[in-house]
Structures are given as structure tokens and as C-alpha cells.
Design a protein that fits this description.
CATH topology: Porin
Shape: elongated
Distance between the termini: 33 Å
Radius of gyration: 24 Å
CATH architecture: Beta Barrel
Low-confidence stretches: 1-30
Number of helices: 1
Structural class: mainly beta
Order of helices and strands: HEEEEEEEEEEEEEEE
Strand order of the largest sheet: 1-5-6-7-8-10-12-15
CATH class: Mainly Beta
Mean pLDDT: 88
């Protein structure tokens, strides 16, 4: 089973309770109380955008060919707390954890190509940087439930607020291959562009409550980040983040 298969299976398993609760009728009046629960995030789009880039320098004469790729996990766990402030308004705070991974390969061709056979005889140095980043997200949101009061639409809520992203520990492996064929390796950690980053959040979800006041809330969110947390040649954090979220609270 691949990581993508596991992520999809985990998402389906988390959404299953919501399907069971879909038929439950929330007839009781909203209760103003504190609820706590767990949270699962699913990221359908890459968290780090990667590309191929060529840079040419004259002093010294060299050509850098950058190949970047990202294969971050598609899901991450979290916890949440919500307080029903008014009849139609609640305030929520959450904390999420996930990994952001990327690999960038730099093929460095030094000097001038003097080949007369159509090949490239410039000395080649290859560096490969592989990084895994611990990312923590802290959304502070307001939920509004009051647009509809009857039927299935009363379950719909809108979210809005801000989100803090903190870049935690970065694990980096750097592999070097030189023209002579010798190799080297170190684990000097990559440096984030911003350790703490802010974003604006907008979301749309549905809440299902059973007779035991267990609440299941699937939600889709959009986050616009202020600036890239991770930034380098050929890779950067995606400025627009889409999430499919599910919370289970009591």
C-alpha cells in the first residue's frame, strides 16, 4: 500500500461517522458550552510548489540545473476546542501537525563545453538536498451557523479568521557527488524563509450532532498565506492552501 492509498483510506474512515450521523436530527436547542475534540486534515494540493530552473553565471563560469520535487504526506492530525458564544456564533481554536517534504537536485556544470562531438564534457558536480519539515498550524476561527434554520441547510456553517504556521524542526540530508567520482554527505539543516507565518482563513462546513451530543463536522477551508515559509531555488511554499478537514468533538 502506498502513502497515497493509506491517506485516502484514512480520510474515508474518518468521514464514515459523518455519514452515519447524516440522518440524525438536531432538534435540541443549541447548548452554550465548551467542546473539545480531535481533528484530521487532508491536503488535496501540494504544500510545496516545485519546478525546474536553469541558472548561468559568468564568475565563475557555471551552469546550475535545479530539479525540485515535493512528496509531502497528504494528511495530519490535530486537536480542537470550541465555545458557543452566541446562538449562531462560536469561537474555535485548533492546533494541527503535518510534514512538508521536498527534494532539490542541483547539477553544476563548470567551465565551457569544448566537446566537438555534440556531447558535454564540462565537469559535473551534483548536490541533492532532502528535507523533512515539522509544521504546526494554529487556526483561530469564528463559526457562524445562522443563515438557515430549517431542513438540512441548518447544519451548514461558515468559518473565518486567521491562522499561524510555525516551522519546527527541519531534518536535512545533503549528498554531494564530485567530478572525480568522490562523494560527501552532511546533515546541515535547511533554513526556513519564515519561522512564523500568518494566513487568512475562509471555510464552509456542516455539523452533525447525535443524541449523545457527539459532533462530527466535515469542512473545506481555503488559506491564503502572507508569504512563503519555505523558499529556495526551484521550490517554495504554496501561497494558496486547500484543506478538507474533519473534527470529532464532545
Amino acid at each position: 500500500m502506498t502513502l497515497a492509498d493509506f491517506s485516502n483510506a484514512a480520510l474515508i474512515a474518518c468521514l464514515f461517522p459523518g455519514v452515519l450521523l447524516f440522518g440524525q436530527d438536531e432538534t435540541a436547542k443549541p447548548i452554550r458550552r465548551l467542546t473539545i475534540g480531535i481533528h484530521v486534515n487532508y491536503f488535496p494540493l501540494p504544500l510545496i510548489k516545485s519546478s525546474y530552473l536553469v541558472q548561468i553565471s559568468n564568475n565563475p563560469v557555471a551552469q546550475n540545473n535545479y530539479y525540485a520535487a515535493s512528496d509531502s504526506p497528504k494528511w495530519g492530525p490535530g486537536a480542537m476546542v470550541e465555545y458557543r458564544l452566541l446562538k449562531h456564533v462560536s469561537l474555535a481554536g485548533e492546533i494541527h501537525f503535518h510534514h512538508e517534504d521536498y527534494t532539490v537536485t542541483d547539477n553544476i556544470l563548470s567551465g565551457y563545453n569544448t566537446s566537438t562531438t555534440g556531447g558535454d564534457n564540462r565537469p559535473l558536480t551534483t548536490t541533492v538536498q532532502t528535507s523533512q519539515i515539522n509544521a504546526y498550524e494554529v487556526p483561530l476561527l469564528a463559526h457562524y451557523y445562522g443563515f438557515w434554520s430549517n431542513g438540512w441547510k441548518r447544519r451548514i456553517f461558515f468559518s473565518g479568521g486567521g491562522q499561524l504556521l510555525h516551522v519546527g524542526k527541519i531534518r536535512t540530508g545533503n549528498d554531494f557527488t564530485y567530478p572525480s567520482g568522490s562523494t560527501d554527505y552532511n546533515e546541515n539543516a535547511a533554513t526556513p524563509n519564515k519561522v512564523n507565518n500568518l494566513g487568512v482563513v475562509a471555510g464552509l462546513g456542516m455539523r452533525f450532532v447525535d443524541e449523545f451530543h457527539i459532533r462530527v463536522a466535515p469542512e473545506v477551508r481555503y488559506i491564503r498565506w502572507q508569504s512563503p515559509s519555505i523558499l529556495g531555488t526551484g521550490y517554495r511554499s504554496a501561497p494558496n492552501q486547500l484543506e478538507a478537514n474533519l473534527s470529532l468533538s464532545f
